[in-house]
């Protein structure tokens, strides 16, 4: 069952349209509306938007990140002086878990002191697996491709739930997860294990379960990267990917998992810096495309939640737009409600000044910003006034006992076990092993191997490894990147038995066909490595199913 705030949020957002006159239902015209006022959400959102200045409206549509262990004075000034609507916690300021919670609390206090007392959406990317922006003591989990290998919606649901419980403890209320991009291009380096796999329906089912688990912990979720980043080897951080698929493939493959998540009541969708020329007729990124966001997302899929851009500073957006300020304009005009930026711009930056000036000169643009701000405010009213939402102020005294989540540790180990996939069976369990050499770029892999085989030698993966392997009967090699393949393939000519544990993408195994024994664990989480050595030693029979085709 959905939590009440999820259903109420969707219902309320359906009511967002043009703005009406600023007249209170209680005849209090002239009295400044406040977020805590006991009015219906639709009515109060309209009153707040009507009472806002252009500056306050525009600020409500922005989400800024910051560098450093704390939020710093600049983002704090954006919140207190301009009423910034949302903040984003990136991976470079999260090693100290307590400081993350302290920064969130401090910013929320500044927001509460604003003219309308509107709390912040506090977002991060905590997909699980490879993408874990809030670090410190948070749990390193097996991730989406591992969930795809187990194929169990319960694993997806519980992953969303326990990840969200840790975010909740820190005051983070919006997670930019799950990624439901399909792993159709095996050369992709930006998606890879972030995907649930190739199958659109499986990705949709698992993604919807992740959304439900997050909702149970009170954290809002985001389907990304719309309309699908999986069928390209290019990274939109560096350049604009052009995905030349036809309309039939677009609807029967790319859109399928997003349709599942829309039906499941996902609160937000992230627009991707991705071009689909056979759908739009040009190379315009989806971020700036009314065809993609209005006709497809809101029209065909019926989405009524928040549309949030991927980082507007990425080259996939700015190179097309010509400047960041122009990218902001195009994103808002296309139908995005929140423009996300990985950095906090100075007060006088063109990011702000040009778009504020445009609001004053272009009534249509001003109305679009106003509609977006009202939608954001309404979403906040529905969410924060529900008892199941993340508390605005995290309990700083309880962060240590809640992160990592005590219950989550046992679940994620069991999930890692269920995901281990025997790709090539050259004889397991490893019994007559003789002398062992364990090789990996990850100290946690070496540590897991040391616990299982105390007498084994250890080595980093470099060109000294083939020589070290000559004196060993068995080499357990952790394959995690393409640049390790030449070293692995050099072991082919040694007399030792070579066993490969594939961390991250199992696609690399295709380039080592001579390896007779190979496991895939899909991540570099310590729990995944513990599960891998358990499988090698015969603690359990690997039951994961490869979620990609052509890997054997």
Brief description of this entry?
With 552 residues, this protein is of the alpha/beta class. Helices cover 42% and strands 12% of the residues.
Q: How would you characterize the overall build of this protein?
A:
- The protein has about 550 residues and is of the alpha/beta class.
- The protein is built from 21 helices and 16 strands.
- The protein has helices spanning about 5-15, 40-50, 55-60, 70-80, 95-110, 145-150, 155-170, 200-215, 245-265, 275-280, 290-300, 315-320, 325-335, 350-360, 365-385, 400, 405-420, 445-450, 465-470, 485-490, 525-535, and strands spanning about 60-65, 85-90, 120-125, 125-130, 130, 175, 220-225, 270, 305-310, 340, 420-425, 435-440, 455-460, 475-480, 495-500, 515-520.
- An eight-stranded parallel sheet has the order 9-8-7-6-3-2-1-10. Strands 11-16-15-14-12-13 form a six-stranded mixed sheet.
- Helix 8 runs parallel beside helix 9.
- The model is unreliable at about 1-5 and about 15-30 (pLDDT under 50).
Mind telling me the C-alpha Rg? 25 Å
Domain module tally: 2
Strand content is 5-15%
Put simply, the count of helices is 21
In helices, the fraction of residues equals 40-55%
- Overall mean pLDDT stands at 93
User: Distance between termini?
Assistant: 39 Å
Reconstruct the topology from this structure.
Elements: H1 4-13, H2 41-51, H3 54-60, E1 62-65, H4 72-82, E2 86-89, H5 97-112, E3 121-124, E4 126-128, E5 131-132, H6 144-150, H7 153-169, E6 174-175, H8 200-216, E7 220-226, H9 247-263, E8 268-271, H10 277-280, H11 290-300, E9 306-309, H12 315-321, H13 324-334, E10 339-341, H14 350-361, H15 363-384, H16 399-402, H17 406-419, E11 421-424, E12 436-439, H18 443-452, E13 457-459, H19 465-469, E14 474-479, H20 485-490, E15 497-502, E16 517-520, H21 526-536
Parallel strand pairs: 1-2, 1-10, 2-3, 3-6, 6-7, 7-8, 8-9, 12-13, 12-14, 14-15, 15-16
Antiparallel strand pairs: 4-5, 11-16
Helix pairs in contact: 1-15, 2-15, 3-15, 4-5, 6-17, 7-8, 7-17, 8-9, 12-13, 13-14, 14-15, 17-21, 18-21
């Amino acid at each position: 069952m959905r939590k009440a705030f999820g259903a109420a949020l969707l219902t309320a957002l359906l009511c967002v349209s043009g703005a009406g006159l600023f007249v209170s239902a209680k005849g209090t015209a002239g009295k400044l509306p406040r977020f805590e006022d006991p009015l219906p959400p639709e009515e109060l959102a309209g009153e707040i938007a009507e009472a806002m200045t252009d500056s306050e409206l525009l600020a409500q549509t922005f989400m800024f990140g910051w560098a450093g262990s704390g939020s710093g004075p600049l983002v704090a000034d954006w919140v207190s002086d301009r009423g910034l609507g949302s903040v984003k916690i990136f991976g470079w300021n999260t090693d100290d878990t307590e400081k993350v919670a302290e920064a969130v609390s401090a910013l929320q206090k500044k927001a509460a002191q604003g003219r309308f007392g509107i709390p912040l959406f506090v977002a991060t990317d905590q997909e699980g697996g490879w993408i874990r922006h809030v670090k410190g003591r948070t749990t390193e989990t097996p991730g989406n491709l591992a969930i795809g290998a187990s194929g169990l919606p319960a694993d997806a649901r519980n992953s969303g739930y326990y990840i969200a419980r840790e975010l909740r403890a820190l005051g983070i209320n919006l997670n930019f997860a799950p990624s439901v991009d399909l792993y159709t291009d095996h050369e992709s380096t930006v998606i890879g294990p972030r995907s649930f796999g190739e199958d659109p329906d499986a990705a949709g089912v698992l993604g919807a379960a992740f959304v439900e688990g997050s909702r149970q912990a009170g954290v809002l979720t985001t389907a990304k990267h719309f309309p699908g980043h999986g069928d390209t080897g290019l990274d939109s951080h560096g350049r604009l990917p052009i995905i030349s698929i036809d309309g039939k493939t677009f609807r029967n493959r790319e859109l399928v998992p997003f349709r599942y998540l829309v039906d499941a009541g996902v609160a937000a969708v992230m627009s991707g810096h991705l071009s689909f020329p056979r759908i739009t007729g040009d190379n315009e990124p989806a971020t700036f495309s009314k065809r993609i966001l209005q006709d497809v997302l809101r029209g065909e899929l019926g989405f009524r939640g928040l549309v949030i851009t991927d980082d507007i500073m990425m080259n996939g957006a700015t190179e097309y737009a010509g400047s960041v300020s122009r990218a902001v304009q195009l994103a808002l005009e296309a139908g995005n409600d929140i423009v996300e930026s990985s950095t906090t711009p100075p007060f006088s930056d063109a990011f702000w000044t040009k778009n504020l000036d445009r609001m004053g000169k272009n009534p249509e643009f001003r109305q679009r910003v106003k509609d977006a701000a009202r939608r954001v405010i309404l979403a906040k009213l529905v969410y924060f006034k529900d008892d199941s939402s993340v508390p605005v102020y995290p309990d700083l005294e309880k962060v240590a006992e809640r992160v990592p989540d005590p219950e989550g540790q046992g679940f994620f180990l069991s999930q890692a076990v269920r995901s281990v996939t025997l790709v090539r069976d050259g004889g397991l369990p490893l019994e007559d092993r003789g002398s062992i050499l364990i090789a990996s770029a990850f100290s946690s892999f070496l540590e897991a191997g040391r616990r299982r085989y105390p007498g084994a030698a250890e080595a980093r993966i470099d060109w000294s490894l083939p020589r070290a392997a000559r004196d060993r009967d068995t080499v357990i090699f952790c394959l995690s990147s393409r640049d390790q393949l030449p070293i692995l393939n050099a072991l082919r000519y040694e007399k030792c038995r070579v066993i490969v544990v594939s961390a991250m993408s199992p696609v690399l195994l295709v380039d080592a066909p001579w390896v007779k024994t190979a496991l895939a664990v899909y991540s570099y989480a310590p729990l995944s490595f513990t599960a891998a050595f358990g499988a090698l030693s015969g603690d359990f029979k690997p039951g994961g199913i490869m979620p990609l085709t052509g890997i054997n």
